[in-house]
Automatic annotation (TrEMBL):
This is Transcription elongation factor S-ii. It comes from Gigaspora margarita. GO terms for molecular function: translation elongation factor activity; zinc ion binding. Pfam families: TFIIS_M (PF07500). GO terms for biological process: regulation of mRNA 3'-end processing; transcription antitermination; transcription elongation by RNA polymerase I; transcription elongation by RNA polymerase II. Residues 129-162 are annotated as: Disordered. Transmembrane segments: none annotated. The keyword Zinc-finger applies.
Length: 162
């Protein structure tokens, strides 16, 4: 049964309908459950609207699209189930960003990407002695450079046993 909406704004009404459709998904539910999910959709939309300073602007539209897309994501059924069951409340869901809505697998992949990115951005690719006019041949100086050739550390090698 189509959800009844009357916010007075065409985009907001459509957002509620799409949120409701995403919450229902492909499953069959009773009329009572359908009405409960319609209320959840209305509450989520009201929270989003409030968080966007009661304006339907680009930010509101982007948030709405993100919520609907994430609820429909077949690779992330846990999000939809948690919103339906109430484990994630409407207000909490309305405030969630893409990272928070991501599936466990996507969060794991994002973590790996961040770690690799950080490691690559500070990778030491050049370890070489610094030419010096120091008369002490037992003290060596080394420098570490990043990929761009910028010196990130330079100092004496404390191990003189080699």
């Amino acid at each position: 049964m189509p959800v009844q909406v009357a916010t007075g704004d065409k985009f907001r009404d459509n957002c509620i309908r799409l949120l409701h459709k995403a919450l229902v998904g492909s499953s069959q539910c009773s009329e009572e459950e359908d009405q409960r999910l319609a209320e959840v959709a209305r509450h989520v939309e009201q929270c989003m609207y409030r968080d966007c300073n009661f304006q339907v602007n680009k930010h509101y539209k982007d948030i709405a699209r993100s919520k609907i897309w994430n609820l429909k994501d077949s690779k992330n059924p846990e999000l939809r189930e948690n919103v339906i069951s109430g484990n994630i409340g409407a207000e909490e869901f309305a405030k969630m960003d893409s990272e928070a809505m991501a599936s466990k697998e996507r969060k794991r992949q994002n973590s790996i990407i961040r770690k690799n990115s950080l490691a690559n951005s500070i990778a030491i690719v050049d370890l070489k002695p610094i030419p010096m006019d120091d008369p002490d041949p037992n003290e060596r100086k080394v420098t570490f450079s990043d990929r761009a050739g910028n010196r990130i550390w330079s100092g004496s090698d404390m191990d003189t046993s080699t």
